[in-house]
Structures are given as structure tokens and as C-alpha cells.
């Protein structure tokens, strides 16, 4: 059987991004659970600010192809102003039903403060609009400055509970990667996405 393919998208451009560290940990857990993994670090992709008149600008075609290869997608974001980052939103706007419909999605948010939940709620709404199937388990890492020891290359979680929550996200993404979800609802019939 082909191993599940889990793709993670990191919504922070920061060199020392805690979101990237947490996503790496989730992908390591997915790998241990038998998946092939792919981290799409948005720093490395040329994705200009989205313009619907030019929706294959820059690296968009290659980027969306890598997302489409996923059986399960992990979305990782820093909390910016109580929501998810513009970096991630921009990447998501290049995507659509082709990348997300009926896909299993896991959500992760990292906050400087103590309340990362709104960003996760907002991402859950975006995934609803794209007819994705979002894991009930979501990983929140609060108080990010104290959540990791070490450097960008060599780090560890300071809190075993946070590490376990993030690892569980990767494991669940593998466990549910190939389910056949039916997220159809009134809203999905009403949402035309990017169709004219
Ligand atoms: C523009 C901006 C807005 C932010 N807004 C919030 C916020 O509303 N709540 C919060 O807890 N942290 C906020 N932060 C802090 C980030 O969530 C925190 O620094 C996080 O670690 C960034 O993720 P990263 O390390 O992956 O870049 C904000 C940071 C920036 C740069």
C-alpha cells in the first residue's frame, strides 16, 4: 500500500519561526506513523500578493501541484492580531477546491500570548469553505517565546504537553489521511469558490 502523503504549509517567514519548528515536529510524528512528508516553507516560494487576474503568478503552479499531491495537509500559522497570518492566507488564495476538497486537514497555531484558538477557528472556517475535512484535534502552542529551547536548527519543546499535542496532530493526519469524507452541507452547495 502507498504510504499516506502529508504536506505541511508553514505560514511564517521568520528565520527562527516557532511555527516551522512545531510543524517539523508534527511531520516527524507523521513520518513515524508511516507517512511520506513534505514541508512547504512559504519563505522558499515566489507567491506574489494574490491577484485573481493572474492566479498562476510566480511559483503558483508548482506550489499548488505540491499541495494537490497531499492526502492530508497540515496548516501551521503564527497568530497575528488574533487570526492567522497573511503569508498563509496568500498561499491559500492560490489554492482552491482542487487542492482541498475532501482532503484531510490538520490545524496548528503558535501564539506569542496565551490564546491561539481564534486563529484555529478562522482556519477551520476557510477549510469549511473549501470542503476540506478538518481533524477535530488541533494543536495550539501558546506563549511561544518560552515554548522552545535551542536554536532554529537544534531545538526542543520546553513543555511535554505541547510536544504531545503537536505530535498527535501528525499522527491523526496519517490515521485519517485516506478516509472518504462527506463534508457536503448547505454551505458547500452555496459556495462557488473561485468559479466565475
Ligand atoms: C504582526 C503580528 C501580530 C501578532 N499578533 C499576535 C496576537 O494577536 N496574539 C498573540 O498571542 N501573538 C501575536 N503575535 C506574536 C506571534 O504570534 C508570535 O511571535 C509567534 O511566535 C510568531 O510565530 P513564528 O515564530 O512562527 O513567526 C503577533 C506577531 C506579529 C508579528
Helices and strands, with pairings:
Elements: E1 5-10, H1 18-32, E2 36-41, H2 60-68, E3 72-78, H3 86-94, H4 97-100, E4 104-110, H5 117-129, E5 133-134, E6 139-141, E7 148-150, E8 155-157, H6 160-175, H7 186-190
Parallel strand pairs: 1-2, 1-3, 3-4, 4-5, 4-6
Antiparallel strand pairs: 7-8
Helix pairs in contact: 1-6
This protein binds flavin mononucleotide.
Q: Overview of this structure, please?
A:
With 196 residues, the protein is an alpha/beta fold. The chain has a single domain (5-190), classed as Rossmann fold, CATH 3.40.50. It is 36% helix and 19% strand. The chain has helices spanning 18-32, 60-68, 86-94, 97-100, 117-129, 160-175, 186-190, and strands at residues 5-10, 36-41, 72-78, 104-110, 133-134, 139-141, 148-150, 155-157. The strands form two sheets. Strands 1, 2, 3, 4, 5 and 6 form a six-stranded parallel sheet that branches. A two-stranded antiparallel ribbon has the order 7-8. It is globular, with a radius of gyration of 16 Å. The mean pLDDT is 94. Flavin mononucleotide (FMN) is lined by residues 12, 14, 17-19, 78-82, 110-113, 144.
The low-confidence runs, each spanning 5 or more residues with pLDDT under 50, are none
Which class best fits the helix and strand makeup? alpha/beta
**Straight-line N-to-C gap:** 39 Å
Order of helices and strands: EHEHEHHEHEEEEHH
Ligands, deduplicated: flavin mononucleotide
The overall pLDDT average reads 94
H/I helix tally: 7
CATH superfamily descriptor: Flavodoxin domain
CATH class assignment: Alpha Beta
Q: What profile does the largest beta sheet have?
A: 6 strands, parallel
CATH architecture descriptor? 3-Layer(aba) Sandwich
Report the β-strand fraction as a percent range: 15-25%
What fold name stands as the CATH topology?
Rossmann fold
What's the Cα radius of gyration?
16 Å
Helix content: 25-40%
Amino acid at each position: 500500500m502507498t504510504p499516506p502523503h502529508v504536506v505541511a504549509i508553514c505560514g511564517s517567514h521568520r528565520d527562527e519561526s516557532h511555527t516551522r519548528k512545531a510543524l517539523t515536529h508534527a511531520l516527524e510524528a507523521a513520518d513515524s506513523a508511516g507517512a511520506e512528508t513534505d514541508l512547504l516553507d512559504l519563505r522558499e516560494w515566489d507567491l506574489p500578493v494574490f491577484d485573481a487576474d493572474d492566479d498562476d503568478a510566480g511559483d503558483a503552479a508548482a506550489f499548488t501541484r505540491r499541495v494537490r499531491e497531499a492526502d492530508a495537509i497540515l496548516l501551521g500559522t503564527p497568530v497575528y492580531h488574533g487570526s492567522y497570518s497573511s503569508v498563509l492566507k496568500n498561499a491559500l488564495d492560490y489554492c482552491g477546491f482542487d487542492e482541498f476538497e475532501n482532503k484531510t486537514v490538520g490545524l496548528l497555531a503558535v501564539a506569542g500570548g496565551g490564546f491561539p484558538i481564534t486563529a484555529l477557528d478562522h482556519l477551520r472556517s476557510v477549510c469549511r469553505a473549501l470542503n476540506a475535512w478538518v481533524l477535530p484535534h488541533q494543536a495550539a502552542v501558546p506563549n511561544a517565546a518560552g515554548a522552545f529551547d535551542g536554536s532554529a536548527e537544534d531545538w526542543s519543546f520546553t513543555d511535554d504537553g505541547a510536544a504531545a499535542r503537536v505530535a498527535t496532530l501528525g499522527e491523526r493526519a496519517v490515521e485519517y489521511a485516506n478516509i472518504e469524507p462527506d463534508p457536503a452541507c448547505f454551505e458547500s452547495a452555496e459556495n462557488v469558490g473561485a468559479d466565475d
